Structures are given as C-alpha cells and as structure tokens.
Amino acid sequence: MQIRPVLIALSIPLLLASCATQYQPSGLSGGFRELRLNETVYRVSFSGNGYATYETVQTYWLYRCAELALQNGFGGFEILSDVRFLRDDSSPGPVMALSEPVRLAAGGRFVYVPVGAPAGRPKSSIVGDIHLIPQPDEPRPPKIFDAARLKSSLEAFVMGDKCNGNVCPHVHAYLLAPGTLDEPPVRYVEKSDEEAGAGGNAMQAEENAEGAPRGRPEPGPAAGVNTPEG
User: Fold this and answer.
1) Which of 121, 129, 134, 198 could cross-link with 80 by S-S, CB 3.0 to 4.6 Å?
2) What is the C-alpha to C-alpha distance for residues 68 and 76, in angstroms, rounded to an integer?
C-alpha cells in the first residue's frame, strides 16, 4: 500500500528532468528573470535545464527582451553585452543537472531521490544587459531591435509547436540585416570531366561555325601597335 505514494513521488523529479525548459519565469526547471540596473537598463537572463537546446534558450531570451521593452512603453532595445548568438542548431542532449536529493517518508524510512538529467553536456543559459530605447528608425540586428517586430517574428517559435519540447530549428532571419535573405542563393553544380569536355567541344564547334563566339567582341589590334593606314 505504500508503494503507490513512493512511485508518484519518484515520477515528479523524473518528469521535471525529462522536459525541456519552456518560456516561463525562473523556476525549478529554469526560465527568465531580469534585474533593473537603472531606469532604462536591465540585466536579462534565461536559463535552460539539461534538455533545452541553446537555440531554445536564445529564442526565449530575445523574446523576453522584446516583451520587456514593450511592457515598459519602449519601442526597441539595444544589446549592451557581448552575447554569443547561435547561427546553427545542435541537437539536444542530456547534461549534469543534479540538485539536492528529495527526502521521502516511506514506512518510517527515508528514500533519497536524486533530481537531474544524465551527464552529457552543460546547461544552456544567456545573461546580457539591454538598454530600452524609443522606436528605432533603423533597426540594426543583432545589436539594435524593433521590439514589436522581433516579438512578432519569434511568436510562432515561442508559442507554437515544439520539436522534442524545444524550439524547432529555424533560420534566424531576425538576427540578420534587412534584405540579407532577399537574394536567392547561388548554386554551384559540379560537372564531371566528361560533361565539361562535351560542353567545351560544343562551344568550340559553335565558334567554328559562326566565326567569333556570340557576345564576344571581335579581337582588335593590340594596344600600342600601329597599323598601316589605307
């Protein structure tokens, strides 16, 4: 009869340890917090547990900065600290996240349950100072942001569906200068020697048939060489 309460108690820390940190105020499994340094400067932090990817922590930190600016009546913010932003995602993995053991009474004896995730990699976190500013005329990410625009760009990742409990990997266009991704990427296709040779032979045949190749001017006299008149 005493087994059931023990199993329930055992499941609580396991559930906490196996879920990635969600967007929330700081608690047992991590979250955001801020410290007001003066009227317009805040120190914002977001800590993840052992299952939260750095991309998740980064997304939540940026979202909290934008949210904080709007809540205080500002249109933008400037990052004052040297914050390392992720450009590509690494897959989530467990880390050492041990805390004080939980002590449970069971039949007059105490059971110690360690709380935490298996060892593997350190927990992700970001701490940085931001300066709340009026609506910026020209946002300059990744340093100066339009708070409303950034919050709107991140909304779907923060509030939408997750990938294994984390923010889904995505292109961080909101960290790039406007227009960076407007141009389609240039694709380079490698050709085999046989294909390259066939293409070269076809071009040579076209030149032989028509004289000078299309789009290429007729060769003129070399520079500095006098030609006879008439």
Assistant:
1) 129
2) 10
DSSP 111: E
Q: Which residue has the tokens 């939540």?
A: 60
Exposure of 150 by Cβ count < 10 A (0-12 exposed, 13-18 middle, 19+ buried)?
buried
With tokens 């500002």, the residue in question is 74
Q: Per DSSP, what are the bridge partners of residue 130? A: 42, 79
For 155-167, write each residue's pLDDT tens digit. 999 999 999 999 9
Q: Which residue has the higher pLDDT, 227 or 47?
A: 47
The residues facing 35 across adjacent strands are 43
- Rg value, the chain, Cα: 30
The CB density around residue 207, as the number of other CB atoms within 10 Å, is 13
Name the DSSP class of 92: -
Residue 78: pLDDT over 60? yes
